[in-house]
Write a structure and sequence with these properties.
The chain is built from six helices and no strands. The chain has 106 residues and is mainly α.
Length: 106
């Protein structure tokens, strides 16, 4: 039953929702509005220089410790050479939130 609501449309909607939230701090125009200031990645930015520490933290808070090694390695390859700490964090969150591991953890 969990996957009956997951289809090609909802997968794209989730991707777009996460991208908008990371960029603007807002979930949607009318539902779940958050002020941009309420999106605070200060702690995660402190971890950005250590991709393993950042991924450990995000694994705990986003996938409850179930992030697969394949997904973890793929995300690490993308973020490990990113020079901007905030960009490192937002890329890692975006990739994790759009991964199959996160979809199953929901």
């Amino acid at each position: 039953p969990e996957f009956q609501i997951t289809n090609a449309v909802t997968i794209i909607e989730i991707k777009n929702l996460v991208q908008r939230w990371l960029r603007t701090g807002r979930m949607d125009q009318g539902i779940g509005q958050l002020t941009p200031e309420s999106v605070d990645f200060a702690y995660e930015v402190t971890l950005a220089g250590n991709s393993d520490a950042l991924l450990d933290h995000l694994d705990t808070v986003m996938t409850y410790g179930t992030l697969s090694s394949n997904t973890r390695d793929a995300i690490r390859r993308v973020i490990e050479n990113e020079p901007k700490p905030l960009t490192t964090v937002t890329k890692a969150i975006y990739l994790m939130a759009t991964s199959p591991d996160y979809a199953i953890a929901l």
